[in-house]
Amino acid sequence: MAWAEIFTETYIVGFILLFFRFAAIFIATPIFSHKNIPMNIKATIAFFFAVVFYPSMPPLEIEINLISFIIAILSEMLFGLIIGLILLLSYNVITFAGGIISFMMGFSMASAIDPQTGISMPIISQFLSLIALMILLSIDMHHWVLLYMDKSLVAIPLGGFRMNEDLFNYVIDAAANMFIVGLMIAFPIIALAWLADIIFGMLMKTMPQFNLLVIGFPIKIMVSFVVLIATIAATMLIVKGEMLKSFNVLEMFF
Fold it and tell me: The pTM is what?
């Protein structure tokens, strides 16, 4: 490619669309979308990767005019946001499960600002979310995203992404699956909490002097922590499996 061709209208428009594709990915995808990363840093990283992937950019197929350019930008933003949404639905399985576990343990009021999302979240959700984030880093999920972006340049022309019915239906199913898998992860502690409530209720009937607040709740919290520690490895395997499944589903874009 000659240097004079790089600064032609076609390549400039292509570079801008490539930048928006990476920018949308970094806004919505787990790890890259961390709130502690300033927005100007994310924009700089998106610009850097747009420069890196620029030589592998396929020829632009859209007509170059204002309307087509705006539609192409919206298409690239939608592409990145949909990918981020699919990955977030798989990742948020653990935060949903953590919210249920916090409620069953009596920690629903113990919440703090989550450094990753910037919203108030129960402490058990934050604990599990940070462990899941380390699991994602250990399996190089950030590298998977970049490799996927490289393949997407060939499979999906810049400005050529369109939302189809199958993809929309999958997003709906993934949202429903988040609740199902989250309940499955939290089920051991839910079952234990219900069993403890039954036992404590029987004790209060047979021994009225039994103080549930002083004795029952600490025992329930301690046993719940033991079950949580015992099942945390299996929980992280489930989260890892959900993320792998979501990456396999992303192939439907191709």
Answer: 0.76
- Per-residue pLDDT of 99-122, as tens digits, reads 888 877 776 666 656 556 666 677
Residue 2 — φ and ψ, nearest 5°?
-75, 150
Alpha carbon dihedral 10, 11, 17, 21, in 10-degree steps, equals: 150
- For residue 143, give the nearest of 38, 29, 35, 28 by alpha carbon: 29
Cα gap 221→52, rounded to integer Å: 51
| Residues found in the chain | 254
Q: Dig out the tokens for 142 from the structure.
A: 């950030």
- Asked if residues 149 and 80 have their Cβ atoms less than 8 Å apart, the reply is no
Q: Write the DSSP symbol of residue 125.
A: H
Task: Evaluate whether 227 touches 196 at the Cβ level (below 8 Å).
Answer: no
Residue 210 pLDDT class (50, 70, 90 cuts): low
* Cβ atoms < 10 Å from Cβ of 142: 14
How far is the C-alpha of 122 from the C-alpha of 100, rounded, in Å?
9
- The span from the CA of 165 to the CA of 167, in Å, is 5
Encoded tokens for 13: 């428009």
Helix (H) or strand (E) holding 112: strand 111-113
